[in-house]
Design goal:
The chain is α+β, with helices and mostly antiparallel strands. It is 48% helix and 17% strand.
C-alpha cells in the first residue's frame, strides 16, 4: 500500500486514482493515517460484507445449509466401534 502525505495527495489526485486500480492508497496527515482510497470494486465487495442481513436472508441461508447437510453421506469407519447415537 502506497502512502501519501495529505498535501501531496491533493496535488497528485489523478495519480492516486490510477494507483488505486492496483492497490489501496493510504493518506497521512501530520504523521497519522486519516484515510484510504480504494477502488470502486473493493468498496462494493466490502460493503456487501458489512451489510446487515434481514431475518429472511439468514433463514434462507440456514435452509440452504440444512438441505446441503441432509444430502451429505456419512462415511462409516470400520477400523473402530461405531457409537450408538440413538
Amino acid at each position: 500500500m502506497e502512502t501519501w502525505q495529505a498535501t501531496k495527495a491533493k496535488q497528485h489526485f489523478s495519480k492516486i486514482i490510477d494507483a488505486v486500480k492496483k492497490e489501496p492508497q493510504l493518506v497521512i496527515r501530520r504523521g497519522k493515517p486519516v484515510g484510504v482510497v480504494i477502488s470502486y470494486d473493493e468498496y462494493l465487495n466490502s460493503k456487501s460484507l458489512h451489510e446487515k442481513k434481514s431475518l429472511k436472508n439468514w433463514l434462507s441461508e440456514l435452509k440452504f445449509i440444512n438441505k446441503t447437510e441432509e444430502e451429505m453421506s456419512v462415511i462409516v469407519r470400520i477400523d473402530r466401534e461405531q457409537p450408538d447415537w440413538e
